[in-house]
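cache lookup: miss for this entity combination. No prior model stored, computing from scratch. Input as submitted by user K.M.:
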Amino acid sequence: MSTIAPEFRLSRFIASLTDIIFWVLLIFSLVGLPLVFILLFYIKLPIVNGQLLTPYLAMTWMADPSRTIPIIKSLIHTEFFRIIAFPGFGFAALLAAATIFVERKFLAKIQLRVGPLYCGKIEGILQLMGDGLKLISKEIIIPAKADKPIFWVAPLLFVGTAAAFASLIPVAPGWVVSNPNVGLLVVFATIGFFPIIVVLSSWSANSKWTFIGGIRALHQMISFEIPLILSLLGIVILTGTLNLTEIVESQQHYWWIVFMPIGAIVFFITILAELERIPFDLPEAESEIVAGWLTEFSGMMYGLIQLGTYLKLYAFAGLFTVLFLGGWNGPMVWPPFPQEIITNGITIGPITAHIPGLPLFDQDMLNGTLWFVIKTVGVILVILLPRGVFPRIRIDLLLYTGWYKLIGLAFINIFIALGLLYAGVLGHGGLIQ
Amino acid sequence: MDSFLYSSDGLLAALVGEVAGSFSPILLMFGFAIVATAPALILSRMIAPRRTSNPVKFLPMESGQVPSGEGRTHFMMQYYAYVLMFVVFDVMSIFLYAWGSTIINLPKAATLPIIGFLAIMFASFAYALYQSGRKNIW
C-alpha cells in the first residue's frame, strides 16, 4: 500500500515544478525587477546618521546590530509603517480581532453560558484562529443570477472603507495616519460610503432576503446619519476646528462629555444604529430575514465582511473616545525608559552592547496609546453590552427614534453649546480655559 | 528646475498639492486594506473545494423552497419619504458646519441669520415629518 495517490506520475510532477519555476522567473523579470526600480526611484529614502540610506547600505548595516536600531527608527517614522502597522491597519485589525473574541466570551458570561472553550488550552483562546481556518477552507458559493463582479468586490470595498475610516483616528500625539484639516467632514464622507456598499452588494446578489436587508440597512443608516452629524456640531462650535487632533488637544483639562452629555448619548445611539448592532440590527435580523444583506455571502467573503464590521466598530469607538472622552489625554503612568541602558549599554555576562537610539517610542506616545486603548476598549465593551440585554426594535419605531427624538436632542445639544459659548463659560476668553 | 510638475523636494515628484497630500493616506490605507485582504479570497478560492455538479446549490436562498419570481422585488413607498428627507436635511446639516467651525471668529450678530436658517429648517422639518408620518398617502 503506497501513500502516494494512484494517479501520481513523477514526470508530470517534475514538469509541473519546472513550469512553476519558469513562470516565477518570467514574472519576476518582467514585473518584479521593473517594480523594484520604480520603487527605488520614487520612494524618498531616509537619511540616517548623515548618510542616504540606499538598500545596499541598509543591508550592510543590518549585519551590525548596534546600527540596526536607527534604521528601524527611521522606518517607524515613514508613512508606510503608519499605514501598515501602528495607527493604521495592523493596530486596527488587531483590536478588531480581539473584539470578536472578547464579544463572544463577554456575551456568554452575561447570559450565563460558557462561550468558546475547547479551542486552545485556556478558555478557547485559539477559537478565532480556528474560525479563520474554517472560513478560508469553505467553498465560496456565488448565486447563479448574481452580478458577479460587484458581488466579488463588495466585501473588499467594505473592508477598505472601514480601514479608510480607521485611518482618520488619532491614537497618540502626532500618531495618526491621515490628518486633514477638515477631519470631521472626511469622517462623515467616509461613513456615507457604507450604505452604498451595502445596497450594491444586496442588489448584486439577486436574492429576496439580501434585498430586503439592504433596503432596511439603507433606511437605517440614512435616518441616523443626520442625528450623527448634528450631535457633533456642539463640539465644533466650542473648539472652532474640524481637525480631530486639535479636538483632542482641546480636551486637556476636561472632556466634552462633561459639558455635552446629551450630544454624547445621541452620538452613542447613532453609533449603535450605524454599526447595525442590537437593538438596531434590523438589516441582519436573523430571526426575520435569515441574515439580511449577508445571506448570500459564504466562506471567506462572509469573514471579510465581519472583519470590516469590527474595523468599523473600532473606528466608531475610537471616534467617540477622540471626540467626547479626551482621546489620548490622561495622567502619565508609563515609566520612563531606563537612562542607564542608553548611557552604559546592555550588559549580558561578559558582553556589553552599546545600542544608540534605543527608546524606539517616546514616553508621551506610549502613555497616549495606553490611555487611548483603555478608553476605546471601554467604549467597545459598552457598545457590545446591549447585545446581551436588549431585544430588537420595530422598523417604524427605529425611524421614529431617529427622526423625531434624536434630532430634537441633537438640536438641544447645539443650543447648549451656543449658550456655553455666548454666556462666556467656554471658548476663547471664557471662564474655563 | 522648479516647475508646477516637479519640485526640488528630493526625488519625490510633487505632482499633487499639499492639501491633496493630506488626504492621500486615506486612499493609501483603503488600497492597503484591499491588497492585504484580497489574498484571503484568492487563497480560499484555491484551496477550498469547488463542486459545480449540483445546480440547486447556486440558487438564491429562500428557506428551502424553490425560488420564484424576481430577486429584486418591488417595495411599498411607505418609508420612501424618509429617504427624500435625507437628501435635503443632510445637506442642510452639513451647511451648519460651515457656520459652526468659524463661529469663534464671527461677530455675535452673525448668529442671527443662522437662527433664521434654523427656523426655516425646523419649519420644513416639521412639515416633512408630518407628511411622512401619514403612511396612508404613500
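stored under new cache key. The CA atoms of residues 154 and 201 of chain A lie 6 Å apart.
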